[in-house]
Every structure is written in structure tokens, then in C-alpha cells.
Amino acid sequence: MGQKALTIKQAHFTMIKIGIAGASGYTGLELIRLLVQHPDVELAVLTSETFQGQNIAEVFPSLNGVVDLKLQPLDDSIVKECEVLFLALPHTTAMAKLPVYLQSGCKVIDLSADYRLKDPKAYPDWYSVTHTHPELLKQAVYGLPELHRESIQSARFIANPGCYPTSVILALAPLLKTEWVDLNSIISDSKSGVSGAGRKPSLTTHFTEANEGVSPYGLAEHRHTPEMEQEISNLAGKPVRVTFSPHLIPMTRGMLSTVYINLNQTLTDEKLVEHYREFYKGESFIRVLNPGKFASSHHVLSSNFCDIGLKVDSRNQRLIITSAIDNLIKGASGQAIQNMNIMLGLDEKTGLMAPGIFP
Ligand SMILES: NC(=O)c1ccc[n+]([C@@H]2O[C@H](COP(=O)([O-])OP(=O)(O)OC[C@H]3O[C@@H](n4cnc5c(N)ncnc54)[C@H](OP(=O)(O)O)[C@@H]3O)[C@@H](O)[C@H]2O)c1
């Protein structure tokens, strides 16, 4: 029996070997930071093109004395060295390589959008690419554990959700099978810290451009829209559209989505909080706030939690939902580790229960 076929009971004696492609990026660093504290895994392979040959601690001095591994180029042979491979790469970088990684027996968790959308025709429309492996889109499980835990348990390949979709889908999911809301009226006004755009510098993320200002971008055409609509429509059992307005705000990390939806009937904050708590019963990372409390990025910073606050605007018969996450943790690397834990049959919370950093 090969090492990749080890049961979890056996694996307790041998640490599970982890590869991170794109270890020199922001989500790569978060994976490293969280996984070094995980009791069941060890880092085996880290990749970077720009910094290949250098020690990861030279690239990120915060890892000095904690991780001692050289960065290597992204090459097909890396899968021989690991049992779980995280792809923390820009969209389309590894799209064509998925069959090679999967054939090796590795479990793959892709943080990019390459396999999130089920409809291959959506890729030319939203990502300006023709999908190289449309046949694999069905096999990729959309890795939002609160909605797809059972499929994740048996998956070999996870398409880890985007940060904005995580905050918006979790905000809306409990409502989608009720008759309480008008599904034609969803608007999400969302704000992201600058790390959401990754480490590679660009004009919009330049300090002078991003600091001391709030800027909308991608209005009505952001790439995360089809991902939200796919999941929300599946839950509702019919096509649902979202008006999505993302904003860049001058903070390093954190994300807040304020979601508006019209109510079909009179409801109270208390009734909604009770319903959300029932829907998310047993979910370790969803915190439905008490009536009258609003979610804030402050309270989830550097954590895997998603805080959800509910407020009925009774004058306008509308519900306002606030949903806060850390874009790099529940919006990316923390959620990826949550998926890994589920795939490996480990306690889903392992390595992820640290509360947010405040102040
Ligand atoms: N940032 C977020 O909040 C967030 C949230 C959810 C999902 N995501 C997704 O997660 C993925 C990674 O995002 P990130 O923010 O970590 O990006 P990032 O900071 O820009 O890091 C990208 C990583 O990919 C590597 N890379 C770039 N081009 C490559 C190529 N052609 N071949 C091999 N490696 C290459 C880079 O390595 P070198 O430059 O050192 O070669 C770097 O390690 C993206 O798909 C992103 O959309 C990000």
C-alpha cells in the first residue's frame, strides 16, 4: 500500500506531506503560517519562480527559525513529494496541469478560480480563457464546507471558493429556501483589504492609489459574480442574479459584505437570528451575532471565522445582512485547510480555532 493510501489512523504515525505551489504569495504565506501549527502535517514542498533556490525565510523573515525549506520551481515532479497539494497561484497558471497532479494520487486544493465554475462557457465570458479541461469541472467540489461538507469528505480535488463569494454566499444561504425574501432583489456592497489583490504590485494597489480613499471597481462585472450566482441558484433551486459592487479600502486585510434583500413579509431581527442559528447549528466557524449587532472585519481579522449580523429595515421592508471574514483566511487559506481537514478525515477545526487579532 502506497503512502498516499494511508488511513488517517496510520497517518498519525507519519505526518501528512504538504506541497504549496505559490508559497511566495500572500495566500501561500498564510497556508505556511497556519500549517506549521497543524499537528498532523508537515511542509514538504514550497514553490516560487521568482525566488527559486532561496530559503522561504529569506522571502518572509517572519518565518525565520520556524520553517527551513528552499523554494523550488513549479514542476510536475513536485507531486511525488507530497500527499496534499495546495495551488496558491494566479488564475490559469495550473489549469492545464490538473490531470497530472490528480493522476499522481495527490489530493489537490486549488485556491484559484480555475475549477470553481461548473459551466465551461463561463470561462471565456468572465476569465477570457477557454477552459483546458472542462471534463474536470464536474469532479471539482466547490469547497464551502458549510454547504458541501459531504462531497468534500470524499473529494480528491477542491475548488476553494473566492473571498467575496464566501462572504456573500454564507450571508444569504439560510434565506434561499424560504419564502421570506424576493430573490430578484439581491445587492451586495462589499469591501476588501488590499491583500485581496495578491502580492504582485499593480497601479491600483500602489500605496498612493489605495491609501486614504475608498474606490469601487468591477461594478456589475466582477469575476466573482458568476460564482456567487452559481451557488445561490443551486441553493434556491432556480436562477438567481446578484448585483455585486466591490470596493477596495485602505486596509491590509479583511472583508465586509453588506447584503441587501427585500422581504416578502414582516420579520423581526430576533426571528432571523434564530433561523440563521438553526441553519448554521454545529458550524464552528460561523458566528451569528445577537440581534442589533453588526459584523465587523475587526473581529475576524487573522481568523477563520465568518461573523454574520442581521438587521431588518422595517420602514423599507428590507433585510440588511453584514458578513465579515478575513479574505486571506476564511476567504482563502483557512478555508483551504478546513477543506483539507475534512478530506483527510481529521477534526475540521484542527489548526484553525485561533480567535481574531484585535486590536
Ligand atoms: N489574496 C486573497 O485574498 C485571495 C483570496 C481568495 C483566493 N485567492 C486566489 O488565490 C490565488 C493566489 O493568490 P495570492 O493573493 O496569494 O497571489 P500572490 O500573492 O500574487 O501570489 C501568487 C503566487 O503564485 C506564484 N506565481 C505567479 N505566477 C506564476 C507562474 N507563472 N508560475 C508559477 N508560479 C507563479 C508567485 O510566485 P513568484 O512570483 O515568486 O514566482 C506567488 O507565489 C489566486 O488565484 C487568487 O485569486 C486570493
> Mind telling me the C-alpha Rg?
20 Å
Regarding CATH, which class of the largest domain?
Alpha Beta
Order of helices and strands: HEHEHEEHEHEHEHEHEHEEHEEEH
Structure summary, number of beta strands: 14
Largest pleated sheet: 7 strands, parallel
CATH 4th-level superfamily of the largest domain: Dihydrodipicolinate Reductase, domain 2
Content-based structural category: alpha/beta
Strand order across the largest sheet: 3-2-1-4-5-7-6
Number of helices: 11
Strand content: 15-25%
CATH topology call of the largest domain = Dihydrodipicolinate Reductase, domain 2
CA-based shape: globular
Number of structurally distinct domains: 2
Bound molecules: NADP nicotinamide-adenine-dinucleotide phosphate
Parts with pLDDT < 50 across at least 5 consecutive residues: 1-11
Helix amount:
25-40%
Keywords:
359 residues, alpha/beta, Rossmann fold, Dihydrodipicolinate Reductase, domain 2, seven-stranded parallel beta sheet, 11 helices, disordered N terminus, binds NADP nicotinamide-adenine-dinucleotide phosphate
